[in-house]
Design brief:
The complex is a heterodimer of chains A (157) and B (200). Chain A has 157 residues and is mostly beta strands. Chain A is 6% helix and 48% strand. Chain A is globular. The N terminus of chain A is likely disordered. By secondary structure, chain B is α+β, with helices and mostly antiparallel strands. In chain B, helix 3 crosses helix 6. The chains are: A mainly beta (157), B alpha+beta (200). The structure holds copper (II) ion.
Chain lengths: 157, 200
């Protein structure tokens, strides 16, 4: 995290649940699962997470599902010639020995058809399906709309 | 930087096409030196009229005398727009009271869904100095052409749609001259000094 963001992140740490759970599935580590509060249930929500692959075999995230949304999809924000678009991603590669981030401005889960508005402090389950490792469910913490990410200082907690 | 120049030239081509389609080609030949055809017009030469989140009519002339930060987006956008608004909120906080001298505006590319009330509700989540503008589709199109911005409705399954749109943040001096663009994802080490330049 960039140093200048720290004061804000620390305020968040004091006021919201932390998306700091770490879940493992074979060689994969899944952590920092978070989302942003929505205004109402009509707008799509987002899903962000970090996945690292400690193994020697490439894997890929091929799908997400959650009771919180009827139509979750994997997207990638792409900026081309200055114009941002969000094409659907069939799979998000998780290469051997590497980490991939679903993060603002890049890969993200797009949660359409919300069953209810997401409020900061809410938590909902998300099942991730990997091409090789199979399925795993993580808890997603809803942060304020303005949040730039969870603050998970492993040392301090 | 070669990369950025390529981006700006590409953008210019797309904008040229949009401007032509809108029949706004005339001002370009009349007012713009050829070299500047890819850059936003000076605010003092723009002619749009939109409505802010409080329902007040806003024209470019209303901004004269203040440096301006303007960017395009829409409130149904879950990733790029809140990220840009979070970034800008952070920049404004870092600039402190100096930022009170800026006009900072989100211009909606989705006027069908973004009413003034919707914009107000959305912007309440970010720095209170950021205003929102929406309005008649032809006025949004005119503003986009004058800023050299592109946007496009992209249908999704189930009758829903999203918008592709230019993601950069435009900076103007207090006299309306275009200053620079902060690209999406630009580090705040570069963004904040760019804003300080229009505050001088
Ligand atoms: Cu998306």
């Amino acid at each position: 995290m960039k140093p200048l963001i720290m004061p804000f992140a620390l305020i968040l740490a004091a006021t919201t649940a932390q998306a700091c759970e770490t879940v493992t599935l074979g060689d994969l580590t899944i952590e920092h699962a978070w989302s942003k509060a929505t205004i109402g249930a009509d707008r799509p929500a987002v899903f962000y997470v970090e996945i690292s692959n400690r193994g020697a075999t490439d894997d890929a995230l091929v799908g997400i599902s959650t009771p919180a949304a009827g139509m979750p999809m994997l997207h990638e924000t792409v900026v081309k010639d200055g114009v941002a678009s969000m094409p659907h991603s069939m799979t998000i590669p998780v290469p051997a020995g590497q980490a991939v981030q679903l993060a603002p401005g890049g890969y993200h889960g797009m949660l359409m058809g919300l069953s209810a508005a997401l409020k900061a402090g809410d938590r909902f389950p998300m099942t991730l399906t990997f091409e090789k490792a199979g399925k795993v469910t993580v808890n997603v913490d809803v942060l304020p709309l303005r949040a730039e990410g969870p603050d998970c200082l492993d040392a301090g907690q | 930087m070669l990369g950025r120049r390529a981006v700006i030239l590409g953008l210019g081509g797309a904008i040229g096409a949009v401007a032509f389609m809108l029949g706004l080609g005339a001002w370009r030949t009349r007012n713009q030196p050829a070299l500047n055809a890819v850059l936003p017009m000076p605010l003092s030469m723009m002619g749009w009229q939109m409505t802010d989140q409080r329902g007040q009519s806003v024209r470019p002339a209303d901004w004269s005398g203040r440096p301006v930060i303007a960017f395009f987006g829409f409130t149904w956008c879950p990733d790029v727009c809140p990220t840009t608004l979070s970034d800008i909120s952070g920049w404004l906080e870092e600039l402190g009271p100096d930022a009170d001298r800026l006009t900072v505006a989100l211009i909606s590319v989705d006027p069908d869904r973004d009413s003034p009330q919707v914009l107000g509700e959305y912007l309440a989540n970010f720095d209170p100095r950021i205003i929102g503008l929406t309005g008649a589709p032809d006025q949004i199109a005119r503003a986009a052409a004058e800023f050299r911005v592109t946007y496009r409705k992209v249908p999704r399954d189930g009758g829903d749609y999203t918008m592709d749109h230019t993601a950069g943040v435009f900076l103007f001096y207090a006299d309306g001259r275009f200053a620079s663009i902060i690209d999406f994802h630009e580090d705040r080490r570069f963004a904040v000094p760019k804003i300080q330049r229009i505050l001088k």
